Amino acid sequence: MLERYHSILKKERFAVHWLARSIDAGVGDLEGASADELREANARGVATLRRMLGRPAGAEEAVAGASLLDVKLELARRVLAECAFCERRCGADRASGEKGYCGVGAESRYCSDFLHMGEEPELVPSHTIFFSGCTFRCAYCQNWDIAMHPSAGYPAEPAMLSAVLLEGIGQDLCRQAARLRRLRHVQPRGQRLQPFGQ
């Protein structure tokens, strides 16, 4: 079940997001494209991506124009304007500052990160990054202090998150390398993290 995951760890395969940035979406103007055009471009791109999943890691490079990843980002931005990210589909215009059911607006908030040892053996250790805000409202939540308080933590700026990930990687090298990077309670913001080392 985890063969693909382990092949990514061994750098034998690329992660899906890496492949998605190498697929030309065939959309000239993302912002001017209709939602239907974007969904069609996404469907075509996903079909291409599925054909690429079995290939070994090669020299896939980012495309010059809009990629499948760019299409997904534009679709996410549009959903942010009429929020449907979770099962509640509250319709909040988070892009304009309105808060959704989760209490999160357009800005995600970072709360903490650590090397987590409490997962399935195949995934341990995992470098876990916690964000504030959650839609589930579980009475037994072990992360209640951050999940139910969407203003907890700090603004999750892409450069800061990249630094957190890089710091975690450095800690992993001193201990046991993390097998997984997990983002918890993620509320998409519509910005890309900078590639590691840049």
Overview of the molecule:
There is one protein chain. The chain is α+β, with helices and mostly antiparallel strands and 198 residues long. It folds into 2 domains: 3-81, no CATH class; 109-184, no CATH class. Helix content is 33%, strand content 11%. The chain is built from 6 helices and 4 strands, in the order H-H-H-H-E-E-H-E-H-E. It has helices at 3-9, 16-20, 35-52, 68-81, 144-147, 158-174, and strands at residues 109-116, 126-131, 154-155, 180-184. It has a 4-stranded mixed sheet, covered by helices on one side. Helix 3 (35-52) crosses helix 4 (68-81). The longest helix is centred in the first third of the chain and has 18 residues, at 35-52. It is globular. The two termini are 33 Å apart. Mean pLDDT is 79; it is low at 186-198.
What is the topology?
Blueprint: H1 3-9, H2 16-20, H3 35-52, H4 68-81, E1 109-116, E2 126-131, H5 144-147, E3 154-155, H6 158-174, E4 180-184
Parallel strand pairs: 2-4
Antiparallel strand pairs: 1-2, 1-3
Helix pairs in contact: 3-4
